[in-house]
């Protein structure tokens, strides 16, 4: 067989160097395997390791700081709770001091008359009621109310007209602190009359 050169086209006759360049580039691409990356495109493994170690140190430092801050907040909260419990009665105690002063002044008076003592006790009682109101201590005097075992303690039950389980007499007043019973009222309740 004969090797025959293919006739060149008009463009190829005018630019023979373009044909040679295109053939050279194709030959270079064939000589380099496609799956082998160039050395310049590979990231440096040592540099990646160094960057990862720096990030790890940075994250560890941030974690330690966050842990220390959490401990400080917890410690401050415990201190605040301890102080709140220790000094919870501070406001009430300050309100009670004038009551004590008034009682001591009444006892210190040598020539007190019955009327002056009564007036002093009434003023002292007003101071005490004011102190109770400031501390949200509410008096419970349930005469005529329905018996409530959460706020009342029945001492006895007697037959009476009207609805059964109604408070008809209060032997000792009760007290609530923010709607919580701190002392139930001692009461006598009614019961239905027995058929005779």
Please give a handful of descriptors for the protein shown.
5 helices, 196 residues, 3-stranded mixed sheet, 6 strands
Architecture overview:
With 196 residues, this protein is of the alpha+beta class. It contains five helices and six strands, in the order αααααββββββ. It has helices spanning 10-14, 16-31, 45-86, 90-108, 114-134, and strands at residues 137-140, 152-159, 167-172, 174-177, 180-183, 185-191. The strands form two sheets. It has a three-stranded antiparallel beta sheet with strand order 1-4-5. A hairpin with a 2-residue loop joins β4 and β5 (180-183). α4 (90-108) runs antiparallel to α5 (114-134). The longest helix is centred in the middle third of the chain and has 42 residues, at 45-86. The mean pLDDT is 82.
Topology:
Layout: H1 10-14, H2 16-31, H3 45-86, H4 90-108, H5 114-134, E1 137-140, E2 152-159, E3 167-172, E4 174-177, E5 180-183, E6 185-191
Parallel strand pairs: 2-6
Antiparallel strand pairs: 1-4, 3-6, 4-5
Unreliably modeled segments: none
The radius of gyration over CA amounts to 49 Å
**Number of alpha- plus pi-helical segments:** 5
Helix content: 40-55%
- Helices and strands, in order, run as HHHHHEEEEEE
Assess the beta-strand content as a share of residues.
15-25%
* Main β-sheet description: 3 strands, antiparallel
| Major sheet strand order | 1-4-5
- Determine the structural class based on helices, strands and strand pairing: alpha+beta
- What would you call the shape? elongated
Number of DSSP-assigned strands: 6
Overall mean pLDDT:
82
N- and C-termini, Cα separation:
145 Å
């Amino acid at each position: 067989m004969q090797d025959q050169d293919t006739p060149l086209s008009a463009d190829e006759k005018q630019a023979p160097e373009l044909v040679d360049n295109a053939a050279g580039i194709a030959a270079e691409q064939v000589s380099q395997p496609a799956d082998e990356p160039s050395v310049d495109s590979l990231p440096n493994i040592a540099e990646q390791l160094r960057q990862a170690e720096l990030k790890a140190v940075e994250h560890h430092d941030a974690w330690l700081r966050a842990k220390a801050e959490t401990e400080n907040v917890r410690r401050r909260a415990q201190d605040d709770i301890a102080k709140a419990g220790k000094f919870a009665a501070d406001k009430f105690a300050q309100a009670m001091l004038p009551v004590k002063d008034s009682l001591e002044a009444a006892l210190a008076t040598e020539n007190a008359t019955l009327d002056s003592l009564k007036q002093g006790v009434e003023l002292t009682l007003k101071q005490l009621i004011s102190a109770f109101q400031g501390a949200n201590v509410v008096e419970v005097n349930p005469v005529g109310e329905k018996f409530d075992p959460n706020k009342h303690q029945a001492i006895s039950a007697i037959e009476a007209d009207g609805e059964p389980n109604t408070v008809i007499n209060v032997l000792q007043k009760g007290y609530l602190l923010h709607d919580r019973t701190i002392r139930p009222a001692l009461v006598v309740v009614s019961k239905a009359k027995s058929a005779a």
